[in-house]
UniProtKB/TrEMBL annotation:
Na+/H+ antiporter MnhB subunit-related protein domain ranges (all copies): 106-227
Localization (cell): Cell membrane
Record's keyword annotation contains Transmembrane: yes
Similarity comment text for this entry: Belongs to the CPA3 antiporters (TC 2.A.63) subunit B family.
Lipid bilayer topology: Multi-pass membrane protein
Pfam families the record matches: MnhB
This protein's record includes keyword NADP: no
Organism: Streptomyces crystallinus
Residue stretches spanning the membrane: 72-88, 108-129, 135-154, 175-193, 213-234
Source organism superkingdom: Bacteria
Keywords: Cell membrane, Membrane, Transmembrane, Transmembrane helix
Protein name: Na+/H+ antiporter MnhB subunit-related protein domain-containing protein
Amino acid sequence: MSRRLRLWVLALGGLGVAALLAAAYLRLPDFGGAVHPYGDRAVEASLARRTSNTIASVNFDQRAFDTLGEETILFASVLGTVVLLRQTRDERQVRPAPEKVAAPVRRYALALLPIALLTGLYVIAHGQLSPGGGFQGGVVVATALHLLYIGADYRALERIRPVGIYEVGDAAGEATYLILGVAGLVGGSAFLANTLLPYGTFNTLASGGTVPLLNAAVGMEVGCAVVVLLARFLDQAVEIEQSTTAGGKDRDA
């Protein structure tokens, strides 16, 4: 495909998107008005299914299929990173030298690590009840683990971060979300329909039907995905070096 043809395809696609956005804009309610049909219906559906966090209800119930797409984008990004940043034949892995960390930085990072980890797990577990959820909590959990890299060194991080296990956790989180969706079909309802479990008592940890399960699946996938992403980039920066010949020149030179 020539450059000119690619530009024409891009222009036609852009015009189509612009037309759709213009049509949608013309039908929007007035800014600052008292009528908010989508918000009113979202809140009503959230309360009917015993989910006190309306945003979580939208993400994992009313528009759970959209969330599956967002989760799949992250999963595909991790898969691409693992493939592209794998160690090649002209590279070698070296052990990183121990880092010298200032005592105040070390104490602060090591003291903050368990607090940040617990906070991330709390945000995931209570995603259907309060602001937060699997996406936010997963990022916090992954970031908390890497405080060990700041407070100690890369080798200490590697001991608590076996990448293979986190790769399995990433795939398991994605698969769990899909399995819960298919379970709705097997139960005679729609894909990802919130009909498998009782809704429970409002504002309790087990309320919301399948919302807590989908939220936990996303938390596992996001947390593991971020760990794997950072691991691959850090490996390239810290441990992977270009192989050289005895003369000190690159093998491909």
